[in-house]
Amino acid sequence: MTDQQTHETTHLDALHAPAWQRLMEPLARLAAPQAPAQAGQDQPGPDEQQGLFVPAAHRMRFVQAGLRNRSAPVLFYATKVALALALPLAVWIGMGFAAKPLAGLTTAALLLGSALLGLQLPAWWLSMRVARRQRELFEAFPDAIDLMIVCIEAGLGIDAALERTGRDMALRSPALADELDVLSAELRLGVARQKALRHLGMRTGVEEIRAFAVMLAQTERLGTGVADALRVHAQALRVARERRAEEAAAKLPLTMLFPLLFTLFPALMVVLMGPAVITLVRQVGPLVGASH
């Protein structure tokens, strides 16, 4: 395809994009990283020349969050700008209904803080979504390896075992089933298994899944038994999963300390000390009044 045809195809794709996406792209460009990459780094591809250019590192965060739609970056950055404008406006309107006007410095601090909060809220949401999805993938991956072992010992090849495991894991972990479906699709398209497994580790961002890809590559290179290697790897993942659960349980008392300190403790003090204070006031109050 020539450069002219590529430009025409890209222009047609931009014209056929959803109307809301075309309206939000100018707003998203205000918050998106638009600085051109240096030599040797990622550059905007043909499909991004007319749209929003997002560096590869930022695009990978959306993939790890399970947001593979090309409109996700536009909506994300447009939401950041919209919240950065809407929250200060809401604070300004709220201060207009206040009984006592605030000082100029306090007003500026509130408006600036609300704008910064609006910029950070989508990033916090994306980070929590990535962490929640990675935790789901990590916890479900040992069970997926067990299914792979059963399929391989039943006579299936590695590619067929991965595809069957992706179908059977749909109820246990939809995120992992989706990732395995993408892996199977790459294998059917002719992508080398090692490269497809490396892509799986990059898409998930889970270190244990990257280790699984390396382990399969080493097993294939050295000619060792795949089922035995998978069994050892699954056991190691279970140990790591138990260790994470123990660490979370050990952090639980410290995590619950401050909520209990600021919610349960004041109520407990009122219940315990309230009757004594009332009795003290009833007995000391007349004495104080008689002395005056």
How is this structure best summarized?
The chain has helices at residues 3-15, 19-28, 56-64, 72-96, 104-153, 158-168, 174-188, 193-204, 207-222, 226-291. It is mainly α.
Describe the protein's architecture and organization.
This protein has 292 residues and is mostly helical. The protein has two domains: 3-101, no CATH class; 133-244. 78% of the residues lie in helices and 0% in strands. It is built from ten helices and no strands. Helix 5 crosses helix 6 (158-168), helix 7 (174-188) packs antiparallel against helix 8 and helix 8 packs antiparallel against helix 9 (207-222). The model is unreliable at 1-16, 35-41 and 44-50 (pLDDT under 50).
Q: What's the layout of helices and strands?
A:
Elements: H1 3-15, H2 19-28, H3 56-64, H4 72-96, H5 104-153, H6 158-168, H7 174-188, H8 193-204, H9 207-222, H10 226-291
Number of helices: 10
C-alpha-based Rg, rounded: 29 Å
Share of residues in helices: over 70%
SSE topology string: HHHHHHHHHH
Count of strand segments: 0
**Number of discrete domains:** 2
List keywords for this structure.
mainly alpha, about 0% strand, disordered N terminus, about 290 residues, 2 domains, flat, 10 helices
